[in-house]
Amino acid sequence: MDRAVLAAVQSPGVSEAWVNIGGDLRHLGRGSCTAGVAHPAQPGENPQYLVTLRGQALASSGHQQRGRRVAGRWHSHVIDPRTGRCAAAVAGASVLAHCCAAADALATALSALSLSEGLELCRRERVAALIFLPGGQVRATDCWPARRTRQTA
């Protein structure tokens, strides 16, 4: 995605481009674009947050849409490499970063970490993120720029 959007803005006459693939979004150029972020447990619902991207990427990861139900229990497609088990501490995460590769990797990492570990990683790396908990709560890092939508305010 990073290369695709870069190639687009390097084309003659193009001053801005954005690419959205599978919910991951990359913007590059003069203007900006606005994206909605919903809780992973409510993928078809109205977004809870709006975030404006200016030359940035937004990626989300979570276990609500992908995974498998085995013996009546849902198992995430995100694996915690420390344990080899399916991640379950958080429902997912959305990350705003300078490129899509970083945003995607960090969103997946935050989906495998506990809330406290994820918040510590975000603080240490100065990452703008929303971390979604299974019960519906949402924790935003101090640098998360999104605003809540009117539907959920």
From TrEMBL:
Organism taxonomic ancestry: Bacteria, Thermotogati, Deinococcota, Deinococci, Deinococcales
The protein's name: FAD:protein FMN transferase
Species for this entry: Deinococcus lacus
Reactions catalysed: L-threonyl-[protein] + FAD = FMN-L-threonyl-[protein] + AMP + H(+)
Keywords: FAD, Flavoprotein, Magnesium, Metal-binding, Transferase
Pfam families: ApbE
Highest taxon of source: Bacteria
Co-factor(s): Mg(2+)
SUPFAM superfamilies associated with the record: ApbE-like
EC number: 2.7.1.180
GO molecular function: transferase activity
